[in-house]
Model the fold of this input.
Amino acid sequence: MENKRLIIEYREYSSEEELPNEYKELYAKAIEATKGSYAPYSNFHVGAALLLDSGEILTGANQENIAYPSGLCAERVALFGAHANRPERSVEAIAIVAETGGSITERYAFPCGACRQVMIESQQRAGKNIKVLIGSRSKILMVDSVTDLLPFVFDGLEA
Ligand code: THU
Done:
């Protein structure tokens, strides 16, 4: 038996202004994207913005449905939309923000497990790590790879 340890590094920015310049617009677009959320059941409005290798930014927002499981998270709306409409492009970064009761959530808007799995596959498609920015009212957390959010990922059956 061997004890092993997994260390995950992440950065915490204390404001939007502190973010690296290349991600400022991306983060602002994620906040703006919360306006496209349809969340009458949870009142939890999530926005996701993707930075493509072309420099284009595409967004998504969660879409709920009265038959609850039929809805979809903001991250997957954004990622599936991007892959469907820009199949030749790869995703370089994703920013996620949630708003409820008229303001950005106090806690980080961490993506759910299903979205992490989808983000990992986008990363594999890109062949390059995707940076993930996760917003909150006062701070922004950033990891350099989706695997930092989902270590020991399911990545396929053996032949
Ligand atoms: N939601 C997202 O959009 N992204 C996540 O990663 C977690 C949850 C949405 C789904 C649902 O519309 C609402 O937030 C409450 O769970």
Remarks:
- The two ends are 28 Å apart (CA to CA).
- The chain has a mean pLDDT of 97.
- The helical segments are 21-33, 74-85, 113-126.
